[in-house]
Amino acid sequence: MSIEVSNIRKAFGSFVALDGMSLKIETGELVALLGPSGSGKTTLLRIIAGLEIPDSGAVHLGGMEATERSTQERGVGFVFQHYALFRHMTVFENVAFGLRVRPRRSRPSGDQIRARVNELLKLMQLEWAGPRYPSQLSGGQRQRVALARALAVEPRVLLLDEPFGALDAKVREELRQWLRRLHEELHLTGVFVTHDQEEALEVATRVAVLNNGRIEQVGTPEELYHRPATPFVSGFLGNVNLFHGRIQDGRVYIRGMPISVHNGEARKGADGDRAMVYVRPHLLDIQLVPNGKGSFPATVLHINAAGPRVKVELTTQWGDAVRVEIDHDRMLELKLKPDARVYLSPRENRVFTYQI
Amino acid sequence: MPQDEAVFGRPPVSYGDARARMRHATSEAAWARILIAGTALLFLGVFLIIPLVAVFTEALRQGVRVYIAAITNAEARSAIRLTLLTASIAVPLNVVFGLAASWAITRFEFRGKNLLTTLIDLPFAVSPVISGMIFVLLFGAQGLLGDWLAAHDLRIIFAVPGIVMATIFVTFPFVARELIPVMEAAGTEEEQAALTLGASGWQAFFRITLPNVKWGLLYGVVICNARAMGEFGAVSVVSGHIRGLTNTMPLYVEILYNDYDFAASFAVASLLTSLALVTMVAKRIVGGSIRYEALLEGTGDEMEHKAV
Question: How far apart are CA A222 and CA B44, in angstroms?
């Protein structure tokens, strides 16, 4: 089922959570709402579920106007951040709840309910947990129960609020892969909220980056990572180095040194405009001599070679901290040591200009 | 694995020693401990244990036969019946009111919420005698509605309805007061989860909200009932003390006492005292269950936090 929100506005007192947000999600997508806390991502999810009513704007589910429809009528599955399992019911009864509360004529028989619940618990690898109570389960197990419970009513849309937020790293990793597989198997439309960019880029088919109640950019993980559209997206996705420069004659200068620009933004800026130059650590080159095409001097502070790539921390002449990642091979060529004087040149960058 | 056994099976010998040392390090000197515990025990004995024993010894002073006669004669039975009737009307009504009020206060933001919360406490703040007076002023022969009631041949004051109303007024904070914090703690997420699963508002209330607050509710009912049966001041004002008709057990105890019929007086008092003892035990059991559930939840939260 497709989801479309248009021009949603929602304020809590004087705090504007959503400021005219529009987003269209096609059937079968798995979309991440990514943003820092307070960006409005959870509010948007709750509005889609009907747990929150927007001040203005419209929600369409499957092409039908749903703004005024109650949560019960929307047919959405919702997984809460802290799972919200019914603490006084066993795992089995938790999963069966959505079937048991159906009006009598559409309610499945006891046997059908039992079969359906057992099938879901099996899917979640929780067959053994039926008679347990939620308080007897670990965080990851509770999360899977919450998913099974939401899936029991066969929702057309699955909404997940920070689904991996309260889990430790290893369990989180497992559940991520597992959610992606589940999405592929069940062909559900899914939306999940996260503040973890790695999670969003890894699991989602499309990512919407939210900031201050607005959408900064929507795109596939590749698009967002390689072609961030705004300074916020550049800074929020992955590690990045920020350099401040100025525009002069359609070129960007960092502290008087011209650098080549890769996204054409510099031409839009007028002389004297400020420029923000974002360079990812693996797109900076370290050289022992200036290359003459826009490199700037820096001093090596710290080298960490424990990992697939070598992480080098440097400081520029003017005191900015810079992080660079290079191959182990390159490291052997350069023979870097702390306090070494080197030159940095960006192989690729994103430039954003703004007037003062 | 012998080492594992030492950890999980029975504690190694040094464990007990360590615990003893720890206790020593954090406790007071012996004389201070004896002084503090002694004061508490003395206080408990003088003000609680001795009166409690006295009630039962006085009640049985003239023998079991007198005791049984005192609590089974017509007047006593009538007082017991009226007390049970009053409680069986007041307690269910206060349960409904308490659920509605605590639900409204913990689930919604509305104008006058603070006023409502304050008003619930009003019967705690007002002397029970004054509570009774309010009803006399409203429904008495010279009261605001007195003429209208007389014209329709309705008796409230000096009759059973007045006693029931006064009891409801005096006891209505108990259930709501117990429920508000419990409902607050239970939160709204489980109810919302029920709604997303297709439950109606009523289904969410009866299947999720109510089971989550059941121990708090039971606790409220227990103390509300104890007060409804034991209330003296307010009921005394509106009852008129008509023997065999408008006497509740506490009022009957006073009448017998004033008639110098001590054995009968203490016999009926012993019934009320037994009720109090049963209430304390029930409170203890229910209170224990609340703590046990909190503990279960607590370990769950701990697991979650550790996972972060």
Answer: 75
SS3 category, A58: strand
Distance CA A311, CA B118 (A): 62
* Res B12 pLDDT > 50: no
8 Å CB contact of A80 and B200: no
Residues of A in contact with B212 (CB under 8 A): 87-88
Inter-chain CB proximity A97 and B308 less than 8 Å:
no
- What own/partner pairs with CB < 8 Å and gap ≥ 24 does B303-306 have? B303/A138, B303/A139, B304/A82, B304/A139, B304/A166, B306/A168
Count A/B contacts: CB-CB distance under 8 Å: 83
What is the mean pLDDT of the segment spanning A145-164?
Answer: 88
The residues near B170 (Cβ < 8 Å, ≥ 6 apart) are B123, B128, B131, B227, B228, B231, B233, B234
Least confident of B127-141, B186-200, B238-252: B238-252
Query: Each residue of B29-88: pLDDT tens digit?
Result: 888 888 999 999 999 988 888 888 888 888 888 888 888 888 888 888 888 888 889 989
Residue A47: count of CB within 10 angstroms of its CB: 22
Cross-chain CB nearest to B304 (options A77, A80, A166) = A166
- Burial class from Cβ neighbours inside 10 Å (0-12, 13-18, 19+) for residue B41 reads exposed
The answer to whether residue A133 scores a pLDDT higher than 50 is: yes
pLDDT in tens, A260-301: 777 766 566 677 788 888 888 888 888 888 877 777 888 898
Min Cα distance A213 → chain B (Å) is 23
Q: pTM score > 0.80 for this model?
A: no
- Are β-strands A3-12 and A56-61 bridged in parallel, bridged antiparallel, or unpaired? antiparallel
Report the mean per-residue pLDDT for chain A. Answer: 85
The type of residue at A1 is: M
Q: Confidence band (pLDDT; 50, 70, 90) for A191? A: very high
- Cβ of B308 and A153 within 8 Å? no
Q: What is the DSSP string of A189-253?
A: EEEEEES-HHHHHHH-SEEEEEETTEEEEEE-HHHHHHS--SHHHHHHSS--EEEEEEEETTEEE
- Residues in a beta bridge with A60: A4, A65
**B192 shares contact with chain A (CB less than 8 Å):** yes
What sign results for the dihedral spanned by CA atoms B205, A161, A114, A185?
positive
Asked if B108 is an interface residue toward chain A (Cβ–Cβ < 8 A), one would say: no
